[in-house]
Amino acid sequence: MHEISLVQGLLKQLGELAGQHQSTAISKVRVEIGPLSGIVIDSFQFGFDVLAAEQELTSKALLEIVSPPIQYKCCYCGHVCLNQPGVPDSCPQCDHHLLVPEGGDGLILLQVEMV
Amino acid sequence: MCDDCGCASPSHNHKVVDVNQSLLAANDALAEKNREHIEELGAVAINLISSPGSGKTTLLEKTIERLGKELRIGVIEGDIETERDAERIRAKGVPVVQLTTGGACHLDAALVHKGIHALEHQLADKKLDLLFIENVGNLVCPATFYLGEHQRVVMISVPEGPDKPAKYPKAFIGSHVFIISKTDLLPYFDFSPEMAIKDALLLNPKLTVMSFSATAGDGFDSWLTYLRSLCK
After folding, report:
1. B19, B141, B173 ranked by CB distance to A112: nearest
2. Confidence band for B59, pLDDT divided at 50, 70 and 90
3. Which residues of chain A make contact with B202, given a CB cutoff of 8 A?
4. Chain A residues bordering chain B (beta-carbon distance below 8 Å)
5. B205 HSE (CA, 13 A, CB side)
6. What's the CATH code of the domain at A108?
7. Does A21 map to a domain?
8. Domain count of the fold of chain B
9. Is the pTM of this model over 0.95?
10. How many contacts, defined by CB atoms under 8 Å, are there between A and B?
11. Is residue A13 domain-resident?
12. ipTM exceeds 0.85, yes or no
């Protein structure tokens, strides 16, 4: 739902970066979209494909999306579960049920390759 | 032709730049401008977040009734469609602007920027004490978008059930105040305020917690005291 407006923001960021580095073309864009960001990766990719093609600066840019696994932290004992495929039912250390995500909601422009 | 990007130049250097900047940087920068503008008006801004129907507009109506003569209050209303909430606030006699997103499920800094300018036109002396921003009814997306507010308030009502903090952690982690509303309905629902409050404080130990019924009045003074303290 927010994918298009985020892509528009991203293209604006790319334009500013290109200006700062006197670049004429962006070749690669690396973005982190966390699993808990609420952003659907396919929709973001689609939005980028459509909008980036409209500007010469970004028309050849390749978008790479990384989505690092979420860590979950137990609110009772502080134990952090690494590399979870989904929310753990309970803490493996103390068996309580309230685990909160640590990170996982990042929406970050990581790296840009340009000419 | 360059093999990497297909451009016509036969040879050039591809520069790799590490950026590590949030995609929301543009929103956040505009939110900071909103905050400056709000402070120029002399106001404290409160972003009110909840599910649809938790009682945000009623809360504002009752707040204006109790504090409207004491503090200069302005409201920015956010909805997908209709001006109904702004009409309710307007009937209470305070400056109000309705923002309709037409589809977006949350307010963002850009919309609120327009709202602040529109509201300012209604202020004869360009001064306010409290600016309420009633967000679109949604416990999910508003949590992501900073608007420039000083205080973020998340509200759940008794009929919604006490599991909302656990299910919507981002809304609670990012807020300053947690309200349980419609407490007059406690006799009719299986709602444990203790469970909701415990879960919320585990997520965010700094939360100020209040529970009240805006319509019946029980506990409402704690909200008014909090608002007065913001304006000192």
Report:
1. B19
2. very high
3. 75-76, 98
4. 1-2, 5-6, 9-10, 12-13, 17, 21, 23-25, 27, 31, 36-38, 60, 75-76, 98, 100-101, 105-115
5. 2
6. 3.30.2320.80
7. yes
8. 1
9. no
10. 93
11. yes
12. no
